[in-house]
Structures are given as structure tokens and as C-alpha cells.
Records
---
Amino acid sequence: MTDADLLALAARLARSAADAILTVRAAGFDVERKGDMSPVTAADRLAEGIILEGLRAATPDIPVVAEEECSAGIETRVGGRFWSVDPLDGTREFAAGRDEFTVNVGLVVDGRPYLGAVAIPVTGEMFTGIVGMGAWKEDAGGHRPIAARRVPAEGLTVMASRHYSDDPRLDAFLEGRKVAKVFKLGSAVKFCRLAEGVADLYPRFGRTMEWDTVAPEAVLRAAGGRCTLFDGETLLEYGKPGWENPPFLCQGRA
């Protein structure tokens, strides 16, 4: 399959999973707790099943690392290429009745995000990208290319995590910077807003896992943005033991 074929596959499965999530939401659901006390619902499991079945049928040679399988103790050995799947990024938002949750399907190549699809079920938005080739957004207005922006004269629009909104590190990090607005929300939506050029900065201090970030980082990088450690230079590595990310900083166009 070509890169374009792989991206189309990721987007199609993310869209199917998004539709399934909305069906579960409309019908009602219970919230359970995993071993690490993070929430999980029938929507997480249904969406992951749809994505895993589609990826393994179409690309049996590419391993898949998926959140709920990992939570269940299933270990996947990866190589130079592997899929990374978060079937419902922002389960806490979903369980609380908020709209800030996504479906993330991304491909890692040689330890870096290479392509990804991020669906926002409630708004119907789909963000896709291939690093080095471009990024796109699809919604009711059609399918079009997107690009990260340079910081405007009025200052930074900052995306911050809702669940770490009281973290004193955020205020300390922003001190001395010209900030126009700060939005606090959940999930990979924050990456997407940088990628489409409506926000400029997303510092992440709290815990994330690789499946949270592969697809949205691929979209952001494809759109001309950056995701690094807080030194502003070191890139995130993927395929790490345990799959946990260090704190990181996402920025728009340099």
C-alpha cells in the first residue's frame, strides 16, 4: 500500500469508530475503571475493535499497539513500522458529557510519527497528515489543506490540558510570554487546533501515552508545526518500553 492508501485506511477506520462512539453515547453507557484507575467505556472497546479488525485485515504485516489491548496486558512486539491507536482519546471528557474527545490512528516509522488521522466525532472534523507531504482537514465545508501558523502580533493562543489546568508549571512557563488567550480542554483536539493555524502553543506537563500522541503529532508535523521536549530541540521517541511519554511542548510554525 502507498502512503496515501495507508492514510486513507486510517481515516476511514477513525471515521467508522467515531460513528460507533456517537451511537454508544446516544444509547447510554456505564463508566468502569481500569487498573490504573483511568476510565473506560463500551465506546472505547467498540471503537478499538473496529479499528483493530480493519488494520489487521488490510495491513497484516504492520503490528498494532492499541490502548485497551495494552491495558488488558496484551504485549505487542514492534519493528520499524507500527500502528498506534487510541480508540477514544479523552474518555474522561466523553464520560463527563463534554465534546472534546477524538479517535487517533497513527503510523510510526523508525521511531517517529509518520502519518495520522484524528477524528473529532461530535463536530465531524477529520484531520489527516503525512509528514513531508502535507496535512488536511475535512468537515462540512469540504476537504482542504491546513498549515500551522506563525505567532500573530497580538500574542500566543495557548492550548492547555483541562485536567492539569491548575498546574503551577503552566503559569510559570507562560510568564514573560505575550499571551492573547488560553483555552483549557481535553484530548488531541489541542494538537489539531495548532495544526490548522488557530492556536500556537501547547505545553504538556502531565502523563500521556504514545497512543495519545502519535496520530496528532503526525498531523501537526505534517502541517509545519513541531513537537519536542521542553528544550525545544529533542524529538519524542516512539516504541519505548511501557509506551509512556515524557512532558513535551507543541508549537506552530517557527
---
Amino acid sequence: MFDLPILVGIAGTFFIAGTVKGVIGLGLPSISLAFLTVLIDLPSAMALLLVPSFVTNLFQGCVGGAALVIFKRLWPFLLMATGTVWVGALAINRFDPALLSGFLGVLLVAYAVLSSSGFKIKISRHNEVWAGPLFGAANGLFGGMTGSFVAPGVMFLQALNLSRHVFVQAMGILFMVSTLALAFALQNNNLLNAELGVLSAASLLPAVLGMVFGQRIRALMSESVFRRTFYFALFVLGAYIMVNAIFKYSG
């Protein structure tokens, strides 16, 4: 399906994305899609990230000892985030791929700007009851359309003022269940085939190597400095995807 230069690019992409995830606990789908959509179409890129994203987030979601507490507290949010993915995925066959790529770019830019500016929202336990399903539904819709499950789900988790370790584990659980839902949605929309599945499984190796490398970097460097660098890079990549999508759509 893909020639050698693209395969090398895919492997390099997952190594970089795994490195980012190893340092700050998120970013594998966002970074992967940002690079992959430069090389290949968005639906194929979404299919390729399935195995690396699911396995790395399964590990992240199982480590920390708070999984049961997270599920008991956040199940309405997680349920809606998972259940609405298939609705968003319906847009893949109904809209121009350039529009969806552009939407991904908008999400990346918005997340980078809000996060780097220090913008935060706060949600009390009382308001969490109704806010969780709303944020979950929006996260599932956006994730189904773009393959990125960062916004606005991570913003919701940040607003709950969870401890750092619980927050990281909660992100892993959110991304894990959302990726599983995306796999079913892509399969139902005939966007996932055996060849893409095999290549996705093969992409797990560079992703895991990158994740281990990133964890070592995290032990050696300032996480705050890396976060600022990450958000700047995410902004540049998102802006590039937006501009590229505009040229494709207008052309």
C-alpha cells in the first residue's frame, strides 16, 4: 500500500509520538495524526494509530492503582466519550477529507493555545454530574471525526483538580476506551482493512521504543520546559495542517 519512504516516515512518526507520550503522558494520537496526515489521508492515519494508541494507553490506564476509583467517579463521562465516537466517525464518509484534516488542525491549535496560556476551568463535584456527559459527548464526536481524543476531554479532567498521578491514569483510560470505540467505528464504516491493521500492529514497536525513551528524558529534563516546547510544536503542526487543508480544499 505504501512505498518505503512513507513506511520510514510512519515508523519515525510513531517513535516521536511515543517519545512525547513518555515525557508528558499524552500526545501520541495528536502528534501521530499531525505528521501522518502530511504523508497519507486522514482515515488511513486514524487506522494506523489504533494499535499503538490502545496498547500504550492500556499500560498508562492500568498503572497507578486508581482505575476503579476513576471508573466509579467518571463513568458518565467515559460512557458518553465512548458511545458518541461512532457518530463522529460517520462524518468521515460524508465530508471532504480536507475539511476533517482542517478541523484536526483547528483542534490542535486551540488546545496548544489554551494549554500554553495557562487557561483552566474548574468544575465542582456537584457540576461534574452534568458537565461530564456533555464534555464526554463532545470529545467522542470530535475524536470520531479526527482520531484525536485530547480536546475537550483532557480539559475536563484538568478542571476536576485530580492529583497528578490520578490525572495521568484517567487520561490513559479515556484514550484507551476511545481508541477501542474508534476501531469499531472505522470497521463499521469500511475504513479498516487487514493491511492497515497489520501496519498498525507493526507501528507499536517504534511507539513503545519512543515511549521508553521519553520516560528516560522525563527523568533528566525539566517537564515544564518540555511542555512549552510541546505546545509550541503542536501549534505549528496544527497551523500547518490547517493551511495544507485549505490549499487542498480550494484546489
---
Amino acid sequence: MDKRSSIKEQINKNQIMRLKYLFLYALTTVLISGCSNKIFKKNEIEIEFIYRSSLVKSSIKLKNDGTFCYRHNAESSETITKGYWILKDNNEIILNSYNDYLTDTIIVKELDKVKSDTATLRVYDFYYNKPTDYATLKFNDSDSILQLDDNGEIKFKKPKDFKLLNISTFRKSYTYQIKDTNCTTFDINLYEKNEYEYFKNKKLQIKNKKIYRNNTLIYKKE
């Protein structure tokens, strides 16, 4: 194959790829606009649905870029969350919060997988951005309780039946099932904060410019 044929073939490939991208872009635009038109008016960037009572005000703001902001005010307290939303079957909205709004949750990393009778547990408070010293640790279902030190750490001897970690705070108790008993370090990110509400595949019903949450709370479009 001469150089001219090679260049011509490359140009044809580029044209085909360009057409593919244009087709995918057009298809995506049609799908998004088809969904958005059920909720948004033309050129509308965001809409807000509000629930009000004598003691509570709650709102869900949907943006045309697929993100949302939820706020709930009750007396002097406020909870918020942000994330992304999708429309399903034109009558259901599904909300998923960003991980920055996790609450009452722990995420555990198992590190240093070597055979040893001792291990180290480290707990880090994500929202206060520092190690925590107010958590306690239990093994399996035993009655032995261990307290973290000022650096949020504790070294312990592994029990014979090393399967579960039970971590308790002032707010909640968490149970973690160990994946690899050879791990000697457990790094834990702790997510606890009253100001946040976390949505994971939260389904809301939409009908006649209203959103129904748990089939009771009704958010009206404003």
C-alpha cells in the first residue's frame, strides 16, 4: 500500500468516527430533551418543588444538567444533600447523593495483608478532618470492649474467631465483616453528621407537577 492510499484510508476512518460521534451526540440530546420536556419548560434551567407545614419546610431543586439540591428545615435544624437525579418511566425520579453527604456510615480499607497475631485499627472522622477518639471496638460477639487512643488508633491481638469488627460511637453501632483475616491494618473513614441526609437510589413519584415522597409528603412546583 502506497503512502497516498494510506492517507486516504486514514481520512475515511476519521470521517466514519466523526459521523459516529455526531450520531451519538444527537441521540443523547434527543433522549435528554425527551426526558426533560416532561418536567422542564423550554429554556428552563432549574425547577423547585416545595413542601410546607406549620413546622417544616422542605424543598427539592432539580437542575436541567441532571443534578439536584435537597433541603429540609425543621425548627432550628437544617439537613441538606446534593447529587444527581434521573427520570424513569416519566413518573419516577431517582436521587443519588454525592459521597460528600454520606452519614451514619463507615468505609473500611483492609491493608498490610501479612500473617500476624496483632493488628491496628485506625478511625478517621471524615467531616471533622481528624482522627477520632470517641469510638469503641468489639470483636465478634464478645463482651470485651476496647477504647481508641487520642490518635484514633488501637493495637489489638486478633481473636481466634476473627470475623467481625463492631465499632460504636455516640450515634450508632457499625458492624463490618472482615474480608481477609490476614490483614494487620484497618483504616476506617467515619461519616457522621446531623446536617446531611444521604440518598441512595431514592425513588420519588412525580404526577401533575407534584412530587410524592414516601407516598405522603407532597412537593409542589413553584
---
Amino acid sequence: MTPSVAQRLQNERPAPIVSNGIEVRLAESAAEIDAAQALRYRVFYEEMAARPTPEMAARKRDFDEFDAHCDHLLVIDRKRGAGADGVIGTYRLIRRPIAQKLGRFYSAAEYDIDILTRYPGEILELGRSCVDQGARTRPAMQLLWRGIAAYVFHYDIAVMFGCASLPGTDAKALAMPLSYLHHHHLAPPELRPRALPSRFVSMDLLPPGVIDTRAAINALPPLIKGYLRLGGFVGEGAVVDEQFNTTDVCIVVKTDLVTDKYFKHYERAARDGTEASAG
């Protein structure tokens, strides 16, 4: 990618993607970001029993200092509304320039990610992923991944990473899926973040010979399985997040290893100029 093209893409935003009345694009207003925060609150705090701060509970919004600076990818059901009223899914996206402005990535509160921040090229932290309970259909999820693919291609992202969660805070109860991830999907040393010493929970809880692979995979949340299908890895060690009532792992995806059809389709379509952006 030439410097002039790279600079132009940095200044522009990826075009919306629309399919069958469902739109995926970046938030364009404070109202749309507020809708994403409201959706996050419903999913994380009301559905999944995370523990809100008093201010979050009063506002019924999930928010922090990153929200005002990052990109918010939205899934919008146009049948519900054209903007904030139609938000049924969201992903929070933080690129290197934003993290540098804020002084850190969100994941740095749980993991030593220096090995990732030293990686050449653009890196992207994914987080706060959720879809409305009544909208968790295959087409909606596929469109969300197409939106991420568009963003990755647009900004020439080399590495994606972020914390992904398993439900519950008892690592022993999660021994099977955690051990499976450790033995089969551990990131290579040059891309391997490690849980902070004060929060480190071993994932090497069961020897490889006793792991029931099918049961372990079935126990993984769909989001983590999606990352693995993209060729994703996990960092060393898990972290218990008491606020969100989860056990977190750090996911790393090197985009030049991605074989997922959405990424390949979008790159080919964008190159050929055939990807629809309205409908």
C-alpha cells in the first residue's frame, strides 16, 4: 500500500455494508454511541449478571473512558430504525493511534501486551462485542464479521487482539475449555501476551490426554470459536473478571493468516469494486 493511499484511508471511514435491511457501519453520532452503550448494558449487566457501578446502574449504560475516542461498529436493523433506534449489535474498535492518545489499550489492565504493541504495522483491539438477544441470527453475525473484515482491510490491520470471555469466575469449572485452548491454540512466542502476574490464572489445568476435544469446543462461547475459525490464538494465562462475572482469555489474530471467507470475500470485492455499500 503506497503512503498516499494509506493516508487517504486513515482519513476516510469504511463504507457501510447493507444486506436484507441490516446495516453495518461505524457510529456517526453521540446518540448512536449511547445506543451501543445501552445495548451493552442490557447484555452484560441484565442478561449476563455483570456488576455495574452505581452510575452505570442509574444510567443503564455500560461505559468507560475509551468510548469517547474509539470507533464503535454497529449492526443496525433498519426495520427498527435508521440510526440509534435500530442498533442490535456492536463492537468496540481501538487502533494504535487511539491507544497512544489514551496511554494504553483496554486489555493492558489484564495482560502484558507489550509484545503486541511492539509489532510493526497497524494493530487493532476488539472488545465489548454483543448482539441483542432477539437478533442473534446467523445472517446478523455474518454481517458483523463482514464489518470487521471491511475495517481490517480499510486500515491495513496486521494484528487483531482483545479479551474474550467464558462465563463464570471458577477456573476449575472451566478446566476443559481452558486446557484445550492452552494445549491447542497457544500463540507463538512472538505474539503471546501473558496475563499480569497479579491476575494470572493457569490454563494448563488438565493434561492433553484427558481432554475431550468435542466437549471442550462445545463449552467455548460462540465468539471464541469464531476467533479460532479465523486462525486465532490465545495468550498465556486466563484472568478472572469479577465485575463482568467472567474468565477472560486474550485472543490474537494475525490477519495474514486469516482464511475466513468473509475476509477473503471483502478483500477481493473491494479490490474489484464489486462490494455493495447500500441497499
